[in-house]
């Protein structure tokens, strides 16, 4: 890859991982539209690591409290305290299981049949419409504490669907969160926290594949990719949480509809 491709792909990963517009779709599209060569597994690992570090550092206080409360939940006194941070940690861990199972058993099928522009266009439009519907119709009056284990698992099941390119992991989890009554801010925060084990799993899988394939490492590309992905992802999370209550989801819905229409036109041209 040349430096322009490295910069653009790293920025795309960082910006789209946490916006409800599908990072996988945007990473697939450059090769489909412009004939760029595949960026390679090691570069994929680098940009995932950058995104993971961004969300963990941004939510470092919440992650720290959850981790300590989760450790405490193994003791009798910790369980008796009913600490919400400990419950939230368990909810996120269990809610990640569906995505892990879907990814393990369905990834080969998805890789072979679902990475086309037509599929990306259809899922971009379909799940964009669902996001808009949820944003307009949802009551948005349920706190994270009242979400409950059942609600967390429903969001986890929704996340599993994001294995299909164009769905958007953050988009589908925020959509389900809004449908369950979470505020935009809480739906986004839960989605971002839920992304931590999901991105870690994806990065671990890509690392395993890269090692298995004995892919040569280009450390300069990896370093630039990880750094730019981290910076853009951190900035994306920060400004998204500031603007979401003012703008709502409609700018992203409109973007998805326009992108999907453009992709459909390209696919049938």
TrEMBL record:
Record field: catalytic activity: di-trans,octa-cis-undecaprenyl diphosphate + H2O = di-trans,octa-cis-undecaprenyl phosphate + phosphate + H(+)
Keywords, ordered alphabetically: Antibiotic resistance, Cell membrane, Cell shape, Cell wall biogenesis/degradation, Hydrolase, Membrane, Peptidoglycan synthesis, Transmembrane, Transmembrane helix
Membrane topology listed for this record: Multi-pass membrane protein
Biological process (GO) annotations held by this record are:
cell wall organization; peptidoglycan biosynthetic process; regulation of cell shape; response to antibiotic
Q: Identify the enzyme class.
A: hydrolase
Q: Which GO terms describe its cellular component?
A: plasma membrane
Q: Does the keyword Transmembrane helix apply?
A: yes
- Listed transmembrane segments: 88-105, 117-136, 148-167, 187-206, 218-243, 249-268
* GO MF term (any one): undecaprenyl-diphosphatase activity
Q: Which Pfam families match?
A: BacA
Asked if the Swiss-Prot or TrEMBL record annotates the protein with the keyword Transferase, the reply is no
EC number(s) from the headed UniProt entry: 3.6.1.27
- Give the UniProt subcellular location, in the record's own words: Cell membrane
> Function, please?
Catalyzes the dephosphorylation of undecaprenyl diphosphate (UPP). Confers resistance to bacitracin.
Other remarks in the entry: Bacitracin is thought to be involved in the inhibition of peptidoglycan synthesis by sequestering undecaprenyl diphosphate, thereby reducing the pool of lipid carrier available.
Q: What's the family? A: Belongs to the UppP family.
Report the NCBIfam families cross-referenced here. PRK00281.2-4, undec_PP_bacA
Q: What is this protein called?
A: Undecaprenyl-diphosphatase
User: What is the organism field in this record?
Assistant: Thalassotalea euphylliae
Gene behind the chain? uppP
């Amino acid at each position: 890859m040349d430096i322009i491709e490295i910069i653009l792909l790293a920025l795309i990963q960082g910006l789209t991982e946490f916006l409800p517009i599908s990072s996988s779709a945007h990473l697939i599209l450059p090769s489909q539209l412009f004939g760029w060569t595949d960026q390679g597994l090691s570069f994929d690992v680098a940009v995932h690591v950058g995104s993971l570090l961004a969300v963990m550092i941004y939510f470092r206080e919440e992650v720290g409290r959850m981790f300590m409360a989760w450790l405490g939940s193994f003791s009798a006194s910790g369980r008796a305290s009913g600490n919400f941070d400990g419950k939230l940690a368990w909810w996120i861990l269990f809610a990640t299981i569906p995505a892990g199972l879907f990814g393990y058993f369905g990834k080969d099928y998805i890789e072979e049949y679902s990475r086309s522009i037509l599929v990306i266009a259809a899922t971009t439009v379909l799940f964009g419409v669902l996001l808009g519907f949820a944003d307009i119709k949802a009551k948005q009056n349920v706190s994270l504490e009242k979400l409950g284990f059942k609600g967390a698992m429903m969001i986890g099941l929704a996340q599993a669907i994001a294995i299909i390119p164009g769905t958007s992991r953050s988009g589908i989890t925020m959509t389900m969160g809004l449908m369950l009554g979470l505020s935009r801010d809480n739906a986004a925060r839960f989605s971002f926290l839920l992304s931590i084990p999901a991105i870690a799993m994806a990065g671990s899988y890509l690392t395993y594949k890269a090692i298995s394939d004995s892919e040569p490492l280009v450390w300069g590309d990896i370093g630039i990719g990880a750094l730019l992905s981290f910076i853009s992802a951190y900035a994306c999370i920060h400004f998204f949480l500031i603007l979401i209550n003012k703008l709502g989801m409609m700018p992203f819905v409109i973007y998805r509809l326009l992108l999907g229409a453009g992709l459909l036109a390209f696919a049938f041209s």
